[in-house]
Every structure is written in C-alpha cells, then in structure tokens.
Design a protein that fits this description.
With 299 residues, this protein is of the alpha/beta class. It has eleven helices and ten strands. The protein has one domain: NADP-dependent oxidoreductase domain (TIM Barrel), CATH 3.20.20.100. The protein binds NADP nicotinamide-adenine-dinucleotide phosphate (NAP). The site of NADP nicotinamide-adenine-dinucleotide phosphate has 30 residues, from strand 7 and helix 10. It holds the Pfam family Aldo_ket_red.
Length: 299
C-alpha cells in the first residue's frame, strides 16, 4: 500500500489541527504542534530529544549539560526523550537529572532494549529511576521472526505504556516490515531525514496501515545535513516556515502527517531550543517540500 501526500491530505491535516495556520507570525505566539499517537489518541509534542553518544559518561560535566538540555526541551514545550540501554551512561545521567529537577512526570521517556531480557529491563528502570516507562522499544530489529510477546506482556503488567521497534539500517527494513505487520507495535523508530528518504517508500506507509506512531531517528543524518549547508544562508523562500537550518530540516519531516515526532540528538541547550522551535509556525506545503528536496540534492 502506498500513501502519497496530496494537497487534500494537507488540508485535512490542517482541519485536524496537525498544521499551524500559515497566518501565524511570531513563532513563539503560535500554538505548539502536537500529534496523536495512533493507538491511543494521546497527543505528544512533535520535537523530542535523542541521546545517542551525547551523555555517555556519568560525570558532573555531562549531568550539568544534560540538565540544561532537558530543561530547554521542557521549557520550550517538548516532552519526548529517547534513550537506550546501550547509550553509554545516558540512562543513568537522565535518571539523575530527572530526579534532581523533579521532571519525571513532565517527560515522555522512551528507551530501548537489545533483547526481551528481564535483567536488561530492570537495569534500565533502575538507571532511569522510574517504575514505569512511557515507551519500551526493541532496538535494531534485524530478523523477521523477532517477537514482541515479552514486550506486550510487560505493557500489560504496566511496566510501559507503549511498545515499539527501531532500526536505522536499510538492509534490515524487510525485517522491520515483517515485525511491524505481524506484531503491530505502538511505535516504529526509523532513520528518516531530508537527504535520507528511503523510509517514505515502505516503512511510513506500513506504519500508517498498522496504526503505529513514527519516531524519526537521525533526523539530521547525524549532523551530515548541517555540514552540507555550512556557510550557506537559509533561502528566502524558506523563511516563512523556518528560522534556522535545524527547523528547515525538521519541518520537512514534520510536514508528513504520518510522522509522530522527530528526535534530534544534541548536547547543546541552545540547539535544543532551536530544534523545539520547529514545533511552532507553519509547516512547508507539498510544493515547498519538493523544493526542499531539489535544494538538498544540489548540495
Ligand atoms: N537504531 C536506533 O534505534 C537509533 C539509531 C541512531 C539514532 N537513534 C536515535 O535518534 C537520535 C538522533 O540521532 P543522532 O543523534 O545520531 O543524529 P542527528 O539527530 O541526526 O544529529 C545530531 C547532530 O546534530 C547536531 N545538532 C542538533 N541540533 C542542532 C542544531 N539545532 N543546530 C546545529 N547542530 C545541531 C548535534 O550536535 P550538538 O550536540 O552540538 O547539538 C549532533 O552533532 C539519537 O540520539 C537516538 O536517540 C536511534
């Protein structure tokens, strides 16, 4: 099944509150963009925080940096934090930051396990200093027969509110598709950026079919997009919907209503605030999205 985003889809998205009025002026005055998690209808702010390779060491300097980034996320209206049992000490750093700042109830915590292993789960809960996760994902799905039975069981027992799967490897997409179709998780997290749009062909349409929310991993291609535009000004035609390159790149993804949230990684509170700015103001329309692709293809 293929889903194409047409002008009518955008009009419907507007009516459903997915897009913000293009009459909006100052970005901070416009409403915060949220999306419904397909399986529950619960709305979450569309820009979150990724934590791969940014909070690896549980030391004073990292905790201070993480505190500033998480505070910037929350202050600017965001909630979603994505981490993993394998991201160095990130879970421990986040656990301490959330406990010290009293932020656990203000954030939506997503973590990942390498396998359906109870000991690994207990370790993540301990490190995150929480009894309940918002989203528990099976990291890097690579085999078609991988089961989410244990994850469903944990969800039923109240360990997590949602379950999901992740991958950022094109070669594993057939496995991701098979698991998505059979197990119908609440979320799929997949690599998707303006210069890496493979997920549009198979994963996004399938996610819509099985009503899974989509989180976009590596939305900046791990910083590749910023390197490609270094020294370049934001084009005039993009200034109506983006105040920065970060917002330009994120809004391309957010303009697809199948995307539930983007999770750019950052260790910089200023970058977090910039990223959160993509939750305000208009999104690019289909013509502008095509122009964004043409632009990035010339880089
Ligand atoms: N298989 C999986 O499940 C999987 C795999 C990979 C990633 N992920 C998830 O996806 C998240 C995002 O991926 P990623 O962190 O690898 O890459 P990314 O989000 O595509 O890019 C991160 C890079 O962009 C920079 N950056 C962020 N915001 C910026 C801004 N506003 N202006 C300028 N530079 C900015 C960061 O540097 P600064 O620190 O200086 O801001 C960092 O170098 C991860 O953190 C992780 O949570 C999941």
């Amino acid at each position: 099944m293929t889903i194409r985003i047409t002008r009518r889809d955008f009009a419907a998205a507007l009516a459903g509150g997915f897009l913000v009025s293009s009459k909006a002026t100052a970005q901070t005055e416009t409403p915060l963009l949220t999306r419904a998690i397909p399986g529950s209808g619960e709305r979450i702010p569309v820009v979150g925080l990724g934590t791969a390779a940014v909070f690896d060491e549980d030391d004073e300097t990292t905790r201070r940096k993480a505190d500033a980034v998480v505070q910037a996320l929350v202050k600017n209206g965001g909630r979603l934090i994505d981490t993993a049992s394998t991201y160095g000490d990130a879970e421990s750093v986040l656990g301490k930051v959330m406990a010290t700042a009293g932020l656990r109830d203000k954030v939506f915590i997503a973590t990942k396990l390498e396998s359906p292993d109870t000991e690994e789960l207990k370790r993540s809960l301990t490190r995150l200093k929480t009894e309940k996760l918002d989203l528990l994902q099976l990291h890097n799905v690579s085999k078609k027969q991988q089961s989410l039975e244990r994850f469903r069981d944990w969800k039923q027992r109240g360990v997590c509110r949602y379950i999901g799967i992740t991958s950022t490897f094109r070669g594993d997409y057939p496995a991701v598709e098979a698991v998505l179709k059979r197990e119908k998780p609440d979320f799929v997290q997949i690599d998707y950026s303006l210069d890496n749009r493979g997920a549009e062909k198979s994963i996004l349409p399938l996610a819509a079919e099985v009503r899974a929310g989509v989180l976009t991993a590596v939305p900046y291609g791990n910083g590749r997009l910023f390197r490609a535009v270094r020294g370049k000004e934001l084009p005039d035609w993009a200034r109506g919907f983006a105040n920065s390159w970060g917002q330009f790149f994120l809004k391309y993804l957010l303009a697809d209503p199948r995307v539930t949230a983007v999770i750019p990684g950052t260790a910089d509170a200023g970058h977090m605030a910039d990223n959160a700015g993509a939750m305000r103001g208009p999104l690019p329309d289909p013509d502008q999205r095509r122009r964004m692709i043409e632009f990035v293809e010339t880089l």
